[in-house]
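Example record

The entry below shows one chain as it appears in the dataset: sequence first, then structure tokens.
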Amino acid sequence: MVVTHPFHPLVGEELPVLFTARMKGVLVFVCEIEDGKRRISLPQSWTDRGPQAGPNRLAVDGLTAARELVDALASRLCAAMGDTE
């Protein structure tokens, strides 16, 4: 199994899977690292066995658009409540 989460320190590494488990309803892979000295649990979505990432997943453009929407909604809410900030 390969770690695919872009911010995980082991991204791109192939890890041996010892077993799978469900934690809070999420499928996780329990893997060995450091030549079997440690074990880590990775959610399926952080691996090559999870769903493919969308084209704008965590993209700056998408986050900027979301921030603009939140700012606009907050401004409308403040105006509706008579708050001038």
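Notes for this example: The mean pLDDT is 86. Helices lie at 60-80.
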